[in-house]
Amino acid sequence: TSGFIGQVSDMAPFGKAWRGKEETRKEMTLISMAHRTTFTVNGAPSHYTHLIESYIDGLNSRRPALWNIYAPCQPEHAIPDDASEMQSKLAVESRAYPLMVFDPDAGETWAACLSLEGNPAMDADWPTYQLEFEDEEGNRDSMELPMTFADFALTEGRFRKNFRMAPRDTWNEHMVPIAEFLEMEEEEREGLYPFVWGVDKKHHLMRVICSAELVTSTEERRDYWRTIKGLAGLLDKVDPEAIANQVRAETAGKLAAGLYAMLGGGAGGPELSAVLGAAPAVAGAAAPAAATAEGFEPAWIEQPLCTTCDECIDINPKIFAYNDDKKAIVANPKGGPYKDIVRSAEKCPAECIHPGTPWDANEKELDKLIKRAEKYQ
C-alpha cells in the first residue's frame, strides 16, 4: 500500500494480466494528520537539515509524534548501493515524497498547521533541472526540463518495465513530453505517446516512452502535490484588501462620473480620468503585497569561500543558485522569507553567507531572526 502505481514487486508482478501495482498509494502522513492531534513529519535523509529540525520540534512537542521517512531499498528499488542519498533527493524533487511538517500547535487551521517548507519550486507542479548531453558532432549542450515523477521512476529498476526507448528514426510529432501530456484533456491525448528525455551511454539524447500505468502514477503524484498545497493554503491566494480598494475606486469613479454628467459635462472627460486615476488591477492568485523594510540590504555571498555544499540551494533555490563556476550566488534576495536566508547562513560550512536585512517587514518573528543573523553579518 505504500508503493506507487506501476511499480513491480513480488506482490505486484508485471505481465499481460497484471501490470505492476494498481492501487493508489496510501499516505501515512495524511492518515496521521487526519487525527489532528499528532505532530507529523514527511521527511527524507537527503534533506537532513529539514529532518533534524523536525526531530527537535517533534521531541519538544507535548504530543504524540510520527516521522514518515523515505528509505531507499537497494534490492527492492533496484538501485546501486551508493545511490540512497541521490534517490532520496529525486523522490522529494519529483513530488514522489514531498517534505511536510504538521504541527497541531501552530494554529487553528490546516494552513496554519501544515508547512511545506523545504520543497523545491513550491509554486509549480514540477521543479526543473538541466539535462546535459552531446549532439551528433560531440558538442556539449543542455536543456531545462521538468523533474516529473516519471523522470524519477526512470532511475529505478522497479519501474523498468513501464518504459520503452524510442529509436531516433522513430521520433515524430506524436511524441509529447509527459509534463505537457498531463496538461491535455482526455480527447487531446488520443494518438499521442508521452515520453521523458534521457541520455544514453554516449551522452546522446534519447526519448523513453512511458506506459499508461506510469502516466497514471505521474498524474497521481502531481494531484497529490496540489492536494497538500491546498491544505497548506498555497493555492490561488486572493488579496481581500486589493479587492476592497478596487471596489472603492470603481464606486468613486461612478459617483464622480454621475456628478460630472449632472453638471453638464457629459458622461465624463479626460480631466476626470486624470483626477481619478486608473483603478488598481486585481489578480485572483496574487498574494498580499509585503511592506518593504526601510534601509533594506540584500544578502550577499563571499563566492571564493563557497564549497558547493548545496545547503543554501536545498533550503531555497529561488533565493540561491549556482553560477557557471559552481559557486553559490544570491539570485533573488526577495525570492523567499528572511528565515530561509538566516537558516542558510547558519548551515553554510564556510560561513560565507551574509544575511543582510529582511525585505518584508511583516514576516513573523523578525526580531529573533535579526538577532540570529547578527553573527553572520
Layout of helices and strands, plus pairs?
Elements (H helix, E strand, L loop, with lengths): L27 H6 L5 E5 L4 H13 L4 E5 L4 H4 L6 H10 L6 E3 L7 H4 E2 L12 E7 L5 E7 L2 H5 L9 E4 L8 E3 H5 L3 H4 L3 E7 L5 E6 L1 H20 L8 H23 L7 H7 L23 E2 L9 H5 L4 E3 L5 E3 L7 H10 L5 E2 L11 H8 L4
Parallel strand pairs: 1-2, 8-9
Antiparallel strand pairs: 1-3, 3-4, 5-6, 7-10, 9-10, 11-14, 12-13
Helix pairs in contact: 13-14
Short description:
By secondary structure, this protein is α+β, with helices and mostly antiparallel strands. It has 14 helices and 14 strands.
Q: In words, what does this structure look like?
A:
The structure is a single chain. With 377 residues, the chain is of the alpha+beta class. Among the domains are: 128-221, no CATH class; 240-276, no CATH class; 300-376, Alpha-Beta Plaits (2-Layer Sandwich), CATH 3.30.70.20. Helices cover 33% and strands 16% of the residues.
Structural class based on helices, strands and sheet pairing: alpha+beta
The topology string of helices and strands comes to HEHEHHEHEEEHEEHHEEHHHEHEEHEH
Instruction: Figure out the total of helices.
Output: 14
Q: What level of helicity do the residues show?
A: 25-40%
Shape: globular
Number of strands: 14
Strand arrangement, major sheet: 2-1-3-4
Separation of termini?
49 Å
Largest sheet: 4 strands, mixed
Proportion of beta-strand residues: 15-25%
Mean pLDDT, to the nearest integer, reads 86
CA radius of gyration = 25 Å
The poorly predicted ranges are: 271-276, 281-290
